[in-house]
Design brief:
CATH topology: P1 Nuclease
Number of strands: 5
Strand order of the largest sheet: 4-3-5
Helix content: 55-70%
Number of helices: 12
Shape: globular
Largest sheet: 3 strands, mixed
CATH superfamily: P1 Nuclease
Order of helices and strands: HHHHHEHHEEEHHHHEH
CATH architecture: Orthogonal Bundle
Distance between the termini: 53 Å
Amino acid sequence: MPNNILKTSLLSLSLLITSGQCLAWGQQGHRVTGQIAETYLTEKTKTQLAAIMGPESLAESSTYPDEMRSSPDLFWKKTANPFHYVTLQDGEHYHREDAPDEGDAVTALKMYTKVLQDKKSSQEQKQLAVRFIVHILGDLHQPLHVGAKARDDQGGNKIKVKYFGRDSNLHRVWDSEIIDNQQLSYTEHSSMLLRYIDSSKVKTWSKVDVGAWINESALLREKSYSASDELSYDYNFQHLPTVKVRLQQAGVRIGAYLNAVLAGEAIKFPN
């Protein structure tokens, strides 16, 4: 094999391996949150999003930042890498100084919210902003994307486990394996979850409070760790209800967030 082809192949493989380490909810989970979010958009928001995104649904938008992580472009290879998670110094609450110099999910969310609200932003810039907003809000509802510095386990990526006998890690179990184990399409999954979201839950969950959403994930993260590295039916029984609620909450809140942002409302971010 010629050297240049071999180098390209190795680079592509390296990027794929790297991008697989931190894909919150996986494609299935992100699409579920995007699909649920569509239900809670106002008519005005739907019109504005159609003008920005064309026929692209929020389910499609939701996976874009993960799909692009295999791109050799420096932005996707390096700059945007930490936009998918936060690491909390005290393990429980987000503080602005927790963010590294290159930024994190909160600083990226703040940046792309500003882009989406800026009338001078191009359509292409706004499209990227919508895709990141939908994706990041999904990420922040996956408990292991709100890491604790003291644990030093890369959001559970270093915690090796077997899931129903297959080699895995704790992060991957929460990203995709619990969800994929349900053997539902994302439309089936979102339809099923939507039936259990009543008006009371919508009212409670629709308050836009990014800091509170992060705190929720931090508390749930600590409950995700298991004394055993053999995870199967018992672990699923314990944590599947949490996964379902976090997908539901993420969907409702993505809708509420986009409604607020596109209505020109100021978004409060954690200090």
